[in-house]
């Protein structure tokens, strides 16, 4: 399969690229290399004849159109996005540009390309809009998001993703472009950006700094190991119904304070503090994020029933692997590399 991946130098996109290239698929990766994009994430496959990279802003309609023409993808995995909720509160404009208008450019360029295909190629083509459970808004203590839950986004990030999802649905309903939306819970695993919760907990603990947790740490998230997400995207691409959406989750609900404590306990065993104290003693509650959703929880029954997909990794084993990875890749975790290294020009971390 020829897959055009956007955002393939980010956390989840790079896991998709590594998996797809490793499985023998042909991949064209379009990524602007923002602060969140890093060529080290795809270093393991950069030399493969199946892999091509183009540094590109998805807002560059001409460049995107030329890429469709040259590469002739059979599927698009659209992951390029501004992804950090806190940044969206400080600077929402770029979230609207990239997530909403960028998705419009991707959809409309895909449609122009798709219109040139024959009927069989059109029927087999898929545009996967990779989205989040945050579009549904906040849950109370009970219940789960299903595919029929009404969207109610609360942050500029989730609102921009919700708008992009609506565009994807409209491009199917109005123009027939075979789009499918995946709404996935919080991912974790290797190569996540340092600013996200789990890498932050590990980095702060290792550098003997306080570990900041919003509010009283009671907000609940569902966590999915990133490779399980990639397996879901593959299943959606191969078996998903055009025009529909699938909820993807790990059935791993945990409060932020319990998550931080669990990671600290793993670090106590793998990298004990020199003063003999426990890493969790460095956890400090900080002023809550405005509009902080209380709880997200996914009902992924449809994905299991229709796609045969279910998560393989338990939170316990996934967190353990993840902590090990960040300890084995301290140049990533602590971000002590030069900008040349970050652009893949210098020494690379050891292969995956
Ligand atoms: P990330 O921030 O790690 O990576 C985003 C990537 O997109 C980066 O490589 C960046 O350079 C690229 N990018 C940003 N703007 C671009 C532009 N204008 N043109 C081209 N490339 C651009 O994000 P992530 O955590 O890997 O998330 C990937 C996707 O999955 C996003 O769409 C996000 O909404 C969605 N998602 C993430 C999670 C999660 O837990 N991280 C959960 C569900 C869904």
UniProtKB/TrEMBL annotation:
The keyword Lyase applies. It holds the Pfam family GDP_Man_Dehyd. SUPFAM superfamilies: NAD(P)-binding Rossmann-fold domains. One of its GO terms (biological process) is nucleotide-sugar metabolic process. It catalyses: dTDP-alpha-D-glucose = dTDP-4-dehydro-6-deoxy-alpha-D-glucose + H2O. Its cofactor is NAD(+). Residues 4-321 form the NAD(P)-binding domain. It comes from the Bacteria. Its EC number is 4.2.1.46. One of its GO terms (molecular function) is dTDP-glucose 4,6-dehydratase activity. Transmembrane segments: none annotated. Gene3D superfamilies: NAD(P)-binding Rossmann-like Domain, UDP-galactose 4-epimerase, domain 1. InterPro entries: dTDP_Gluc_deHydtase, NAD(P)-bd_dom, NAD(P)-bd_dom_sf. CDD domains: dTDP_GD_SDR_e (cd05246). Keywords: Lyase, NAD. Belongs to the NAD(P)-dependent epimerase/dehydratase family. dTDP-glucose dehydratase subfamily. This is dTDP-glucose 4,6-dehydratase. The lineage of its organism: Bacteria, Pseudomonadati, Pseudomonadota, Alphaproteobacteria, Hyphomicrobiales. The gene is rfbB.
């Amino acid at each position: 399969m020829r897959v055009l991946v956007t955002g393939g130098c980010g956390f989840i996109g790079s896991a998709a690229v590594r998996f797809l290239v490793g499985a023998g698929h042909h991949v064209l990766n379009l990524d602007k290399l923002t602060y969140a994009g890093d060529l080290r994430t795809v270093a393991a496959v950069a030399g493969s004849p199946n892999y091509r990279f183009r540094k590109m802003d998805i807002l560059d309609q001409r460049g995107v159109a030329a890429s469709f023409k040259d590469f002739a993808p059979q599927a698009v995995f659209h992951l390029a996005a501004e992804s950090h909720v806190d940044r969206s509160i400080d600077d929402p404009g770029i979230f609207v540009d990239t997530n909403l208008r960028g998705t419009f450019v991707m959809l409309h360029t895909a449609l122009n390309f798709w219109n040139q295909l024959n009927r069989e190629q059109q029927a087999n083509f898929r545009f996967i809009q990779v989205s989040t459970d945050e579009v549904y808004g906040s849950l109370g203590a009970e219940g789960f998001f299903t595919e029929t839950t009404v969207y109610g986004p609360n942050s500029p990030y989730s609102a921009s993703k919700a708008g992009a999802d609506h565009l994807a649905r409209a491009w199917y309903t109005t123009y027939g472009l075979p789009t499918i939306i995946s709404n996935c819970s919080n991912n974790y695993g290797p190569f996540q950006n340092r600013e996200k919760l789990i890498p932050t907990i590990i980095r702060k603990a290792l550098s003997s700094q306080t570990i900041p947790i919003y509010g009283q740490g009671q907000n609940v998230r569902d966590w999915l190991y990133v490779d399980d997400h990639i397996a879901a995207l593959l299943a959606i691409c191969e078996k998903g119904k055009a025009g529909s959406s699938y909820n993807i989750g790990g059935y791993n609900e945990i409060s932020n304070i319990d998550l931080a404590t669990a990671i600290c306990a793993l670090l106590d065993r793998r990298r004990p503090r020199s003063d003999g104290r426990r890493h969790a003693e460095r956890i400090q509650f900080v002023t809550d994020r405005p509009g902080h959703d209380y709880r997200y929880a996914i009902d992924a029954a449809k994905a299991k029933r229709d796609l045969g997909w279910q998560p393989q990794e338990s939170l316990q084993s996934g967190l353990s692997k993840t902590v090990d990875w960040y300890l084995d890749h301290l140049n990533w975790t602590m971000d002590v590399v030069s900008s040349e290294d970050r652009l893949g020009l210098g020494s690379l971390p050891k292969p995956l």
